[in-house]
Amino acid sequence: KLTWTKFHPLEDIYNYLEHLQSTYSDIVDLITIGKSSEGREMRVIRISSGKSKDMSLKPAIWIDGGIHAREWISPAVALFIIRQLVEHNKSYKNMIDDLDWYILPLANPDGYVYTHTVDRLWRKSRSENEETSGRYFWDQQDCKGVDLNRNWDHRWNEVGASDNPCHETYAGRAPFSEPETRAMSNFIKEHRDRIIIYLTLHSYSQMWLMPWSSTKERHNDYDDLLYMGRKAIESLKKTHGTNYNLVSKQTNSYPISGCSDDWAKSKVGIKYSYTIELRDKGTYGYLLPPTQILPTGKEIFTAIRTLARSVLSNM
Ligand code: 0X9
Ligand code: ZN
């Protein structure tokens, strides 16, 4: 059983997912979509009712957490959402009747373990990088891993990313050079006909971000994403009064490229694609105390339900 009073290590999280699968087998499937570079399983939980019916056309929502290892509130919120949908499935019946939920709480399992055991502020994955060109000074310590939010195949490595393996925003050798981003993107592409919402949970700064990240240009769906995003942050605010800013990712701050939501929108065609930067606004930053897991989880789950309902009723 998980508590919401601490950030759990990977084993607790995987045990909890297995417990849900065996206890709620009518609505839960556990799917291993691939392995990390250190060989850990990448586990997606699928939550959906009416499993026996033909669901080839049932719309789906994808949520990933933990792309960045140190952003511990992200997997915690993903798990809170899973808990609500599964253990309180009667309260959220319409949500799992109308939608297939695909949730990957630990998109970067190796990095997550590393933040629990060695370096609390590690960001990247933990893959081995080759010392290719010798252009960079090779610091033995920090030259492992790839920034899994720079490795996606959309304007890869153009801006706001580094080609230095020792940097925090190293984009990798090539788009999808990493097993983690390959596993996620392949799975998402397999379900591309049904996924209507792509969400990726990060921290921190309390922002609800819309593509694009790499350019100030607006896509044709800009107004629709703004409209649905506004509904989401309004209902979020009603929960505990927390303010989130709804902004296009690029106008907000530094441009970046090769990130997941830009890829989901541009290459897969998932219209409603957002990056959510969770609590807080910098008081604790990545070191958010566990007392904030429940309030953050509640307000984000409310916002996501509002978003899902609004998008579904607009189809
Ligand atoms: O830099 C990232 O990958 C994300 N921020 S984080 O602190 N979680 O690492 C997203 C950045 C948002 N997009 C832009 N700044 N354009
Ligand atoms: Zn992040």
Produce a short descriptive summary.
Belongs to the peptidase M14 family. The chain has 315 residues and is α/β, with parallel strands linked by helices.
What does this structure look like?
The chain has an eight-stranded mixed sheet with strand order 1-2-4-3-5-8-6-7, with helices on both faces. With 315 residues, it is α/β, with parallel strands linked by helices. Helix 6 links the parallel strand 6 and strand 7. It is globular, with a radius of gyration of 18 Å. The longest helix is centred in the C-terminal third of the chain and has 21 residues. Helix 2 packs across helix 9 and helix 6 packs across helix 9. The site of N~2~-sulfamoyl-L-arginine has 15 residues, from helix 7 and strand 8.
Strand content: 15-25%
Query: How many beta-strand segments?
Result: 8
Hetero groups bound? N~2~-sulfamoyl-L-arginine, zinc ion
The neighbouring-strand order within the major sheet is 1-2-4-3-5-8-6-7
End-to-end Cα distance: 37 Å
Please state the structural category: alpha/beta
| Overall body shape | globular
| Overall pLDDT confidence | 94
Number of helices: 9
Proportion of residues in helical segments: 25-40%
**Biggest sheet layout:** 8 strands, mixed
Secondary-structure topology with pairs:
Layout: H1 10-23, E1 28-35, E2 41-47, E3 60-65, H2 73-87, H3 93-98, E4 100-104, H4 109-117, H5 179-190, E5 195-203, E6 207-210, H6 222-240, E7 245-248, H7 249-252, H8 260-268, E8 272-278, H9 293-313
Parallel strand pairs: 3-4, 3-5, 5-8, 6-7
Antiparallel strand pairs: 1-2, 2-4, 6-8
Helix pairs in contact: 2-9, 6-9
The chain binds N~2~-sulfamoyl-L-arginine (0X9) and zinc ion (ZN).
